[in-house]
Structure formats: structure tokens, C-alpha cells
Write a structure and sequence with these properties.
Blueprint lengths: L7 H10 L2 H6 L5 E3 L2 E4 L12 E4 L4 E4 L5 E2 L1 H9 L3 H12 L8 H32 L5 H10 L4 H6 L3 E3 L5 H9 L4 H6 L3 E3 L6 E3 L4 E7 L5 E8 L7 E3 L15 H11 L2 E4 L2 H9 L5 E3 L7 H8 L6 E6 L6 H7 L4 H5 L4 E6 L6 H7 L2 H10 L3 H10 L7 H15 L5 H16 L3 H21 L12 H15 L4 H10 L7 H18 L12 H10 L2 H11 L3 H6 L3 H30 L6 H41 L1
Parallel strand pairs: 12-13, 12-14, 14-15
Antiparallel strand pairs: 1-2, 2-3, 3-4, 4-5, 6-9, 7-8, 9-10, 10-11
Helix pairs in contact: 1-4, 3-4, 11-15, 17-18, 18-19, 18-20, 19-20, 20-23, 21-22, 21-27, 24-25, 27-28
The structure holds zinc ion.
Enzyme class: transferase
GO biological process, one term: DNA replication, synthesis of primer
Pfam family, one: DnaB_bind
Length: about 650
Amino acid sequence: MTDLRLHPDTKEQVRQKVDIVDVISEHIVLRKSGVNFRGACPFHNGSNPTALTVNPVKQIYHCFNCGASGDAFKFLMDIGKRSFQDVVLDLAKRHGVAVRTLEPEKAQELQRQLSHRDQIYEAMGLATSFYQHALFSSQGREAHDYLIQKRQLTKETIQTFQLGYAPAGWDTLYGYLVQQKRLPPALVEQAGLIVPRKGGGGYYDRFRDRLMIPIHDTRGRAIAFGGRSLGDEQPKYLNSPETELFSKGSILYAMDKARDAISKTDRAVVVEGYFDAIALHQAGIQQAVATMGVALSGDQMRQLLRYTESKHIILNFDADKAGITAAEKAIAGFKDLVFNGTVQLRILTMPDGKDADEYLKQHDANAYQELLTNAPLFIDWQIEQILAGQNLNQADQFQKCSQAITQLLTNLPDTFIRTHYIHTCAQRLAQGNSYLALRLEQDLRRQLRYSRWYGNKPQTPTTPTSALHVAETQLLQIYLHFPQHRAFVYEILETEDISFSMSNHRHLWQMILDMLEEETTSLEPVEPFPDHLVQQLQTACAEIPEMAKQLHHLLWLDENSRVALLRPTMVVKAAIAKIQLVMGEKRYRHWRDLWEKTDLKANPELGHYYQTKIQSERNSILELQKQIEVTFADLTDTLGLIVEF
Ligand SMILES: [Zn+2]
């Protein structure tokens, strides 16, 4: 397989155009500190927000904790797990550097691909100024009046957002771009601006008699349009189709203009419509972006998080969408990030059924700022929604609320946060009765443990079937019934970063961890492995027959299992190796599948990357197989001894 060999000139030109501070701050928040910049290192798990130093003069970075260091290329290679060529090509594309390779025929192909994208950018740029111009001509009068009178936008705002007007004819833009500016029609079609007529023969403009709102990428280049109808035409909003440049789920409207304000104020405001965002910017609240009517995706959320250090996001819902179900839907793409506390998500619902745009017509920016400051955290907001309008003195309503709250709190993986909410919810439900509050708190805690344990997952079989199941079963049995080896099992699971794959095992392990945590919250000297652990679990199980059935073979050890576990250290090592082997084989198949699907001629470097992955996976599999054989031999030795006795 031949690698694509880049010409040294290309590498050097890219190196000169790229600034390491720009590159790194697209991934983490950097703050100026003397001549350098500092931020949290993305290459190790630490919370030190200044571990990574970026030196703009030398164009290098260095982490004091994990030692990660290098230049902009190295950073991008490591963070995206990409090859050097891949990184250089991508940067060349972004910075408009002509790519030269040591094989000229390949260079031409690459150059064609790059310039095609540039041409689409050009078409979008030309269309933007065409529409802008039309807005201030006589045919754009109605659109212009609408913006000034109805939306109360200033001339300056209209300019900043490059708002425009698509004239009413069928081919005015076509005439401008294709006939006047000589752009190929196919290209303008790929930009999503014109549509081929059915039955062949020519094109017509996609946007006609509409107010035009250009959508920009983070670097301020127009990549799509939203077109609002001025009369009764449906749809009210017509968006550009997905193109090479535009993918709706990964773009936030006004991100290019909000970036600086988000990092300065350390929080982002997310609204639904274009005009909500525009109105907020006009009022000086420039950390606002819009989702363009769709639910916020995980992709969009991660973009926002790059610019706020405290991960502070405020969702501003329209009043008609402010129900719990709508809120759940809106955060579905990044639910985990909210519940595990990565994102500090707050919910702002507008008073009197307004959206942000309407609100700002009657109130000033300070009033809106105050709403932002007082917006409750997502979980608190949900609890309020559950309790709103309920009479807790009525048994049925009380039960409904406590069930809904239990359901909500099961989402919280962090014990500290969960404990905090169990406490506050019990207080709320008890309405000042301190005895009841205490009882409720215990009750909630117990219910949570069980519903977390059950989840909504299908029940798994109780008899060990696969090698993986046997290995996991043995690890748990040793942990539970051989207290002197608990530290060893715990440590090896942690250091090898192994998690249980069977849901009943996973949940049992979580119960154990929860119990240990409860034990260690007292100020007594820490005794992390209490002897009564098994009895405690058995008691907990006895209350729920379904749970007892699934965990019986783990909590009550029969004689056969006891013999099989006779050399616990060996068994643990073999079990870990077996789990790693299964995981390694899975990864091996995954890389092989990817490799088989790769067009090796078109993508030699990708193919090469997959091959190195396959090779290293294969090596570690062989190594693990050897380990398992050795430990297995040791084990049978022991068993032989038992037979003799
Ligand atoms: Zn580090």
C-alpha cells in the first residue's frame, strides 16, 4: 500500500498559516496568562484548568501533569486519532493552501476536490450579496418594511446579519449567478440555490419572494439560507437542503457572532428561532444562538461547550413547548451530559407565553438578563413541573408525584448529587413534617436503588452461558465471598478499566459501590470492605423475588462454585484476561470491518491506519491467549490436587 506523500512545501505552507492558539481553542477553552495561554488538558483525566500551557511564540503546547506536548499537527493527530497526512490535508483545505504531492496525478485530484468546495462557498457569498442588494431595491420594499416595522430591527442589525430578499421571479438568482457570473449550473444546484425543472430542461430558483437569512459557519462564511415567506405561502420557513457545506444538525445559527461573547460571559443562551437570536444580539445579549427549530443535537452541544469554561448553557423555550415531555425531547441528544453534571443546563421559560423576540419588544435587556440569572437548573425545573398544581395532601396525587420524582432521580449517576436531591425532594414532599421527611428520604433511597437496578432492560438468564458471563460471574463471586481478595479484585477492575457487560452484573456492582460509599461517608476510619456486605445484599434481595432469582448464584455460593474458585488470585487473573480477550476480539472485528469497507485506492492512508489497528489488536489477542493458557494450566494443577485429597 502506498502512502500519499505530501510535498514538503505544502507542509511548510500549512505550518505557516496555522496558529496553535486557534487550533487548540477549537477544542478547549484557553485563557491568556502572561505571554502564554492555559487550559484544561484534554489528554488526561484531571480537573486542573491550567495544566496545559500553549506558547504562541514557539507554537507549542505542554501539559505539566501528563507530559503531552507538541505542535499544532501533533495536537490534532492525538485528539482526533488521525494520521499526519490527514491533519495536514484538512488544514490545507481550511486555509486555502494548494496541495502538492510527490505524485502529480494524485495532487490534481485533490486540488479538484478542494476547489469544488471553494466554488460552492463563492456561490453562497455571491447569492448573499445579491439578496442583500435586492432588499434595498424597490422589489424588496415589503421585506424591508417587515424587518424595520414588524421586527423592529435597526439598519445596523440588518447589515450585521446580512439579511436579504429573494425576488419573486422564477429565475432571478439563476440569471445572476449562471448567466451573469458564469457559474456552472450544476455547482449552483449543489449549493442548494436552484432546483432542476421536472421533465428536464433548465432550473428555477429555490427561494422566491422570501426574506432571506444567511446561515454562517463558525468562520463567518455563508453555507445555507433560511427563507421566510412574506405572505401565506407554506412553508413559513424554507431552509437550504443539506449540502456539502451544510448539515442542519451540526450548525447553530449565529454561532460565528456569539463565540466571543459566550467565552467572555462564560455562558451560552440557546433559543429556537432566527429572529429570537437576532433580537437578543440587537439588545446586546450576544451569547445567543438558535437551533433553527430542531432539537439541540449532541454535536451542537459540544460546540457550545468549547467556549464556556463552566459549561453553562441556558435553554430558552417558547412557552408552548415548556412541558416536561418537550424538554426531555429537546435534551435527548445530550441527556447523559446533563445528568452526570458535565453540562450546567438551565431552563428559561418566558412569562406570558412569549418568545424572546416578543419579550424584548416590551422589556429591556436588563429584564431579560435577570430572567437568565434566575433560570433554574434543569433538574430543579423538572421537579417544579412535577409538583406544580398538585395537592400533596391527597394520597393519589402524592403518590403520582413521588413516583415521577423517583423516575427523574434514577437518571442521576453521581451519588453526591443524587443524595442532595433525595434530601430536598423528601423535604418538599413532606411539607414541613420533619418525621415524615426522614421516612421519605429513606424510602426514596431504597426505591431508587431498586429502580436503578431494574432499569427498563430485559431480564438476563441466570445460568452462566458464554465465556464472558462465566468470567464476570467468577469475579463477582470472589469479590463477595473471599473478603481477603476484595481489594485485589477492586483494584484490577479499576486499573484495567473493566466494566461488566451483563446488565445484572453491572447493577450488582453498582449496588456494592453504593453501599461502600454510604459506609464511608461517616467520619470513622475508612473500612472499605465491610464483612456484612453479603448479608446486606441478601437482605436487600429478599424483598424483591425477581432480583433474588437473578442474583442467587452470586449471593449464595454452592459447593461446586467454591471448588472452582479455590485459587482466587489465579481465577481473577484468568477472568480478567478472558474479558479483555472478548473485548479485543470485538475491536478486532470492528477494525477489520472498517478496513474491508475502505476503498484502498482512494483512501490509502485510512486503509493503512486501520491496518495498524488490526495488527496491534491481533498482537494483544495472541498475548492474552498465552496468558489464559498459563493461568489455566495452574488452575488444573490445583484441581488435580483436590481430586487426590
Ligand atoms: Zn495532560
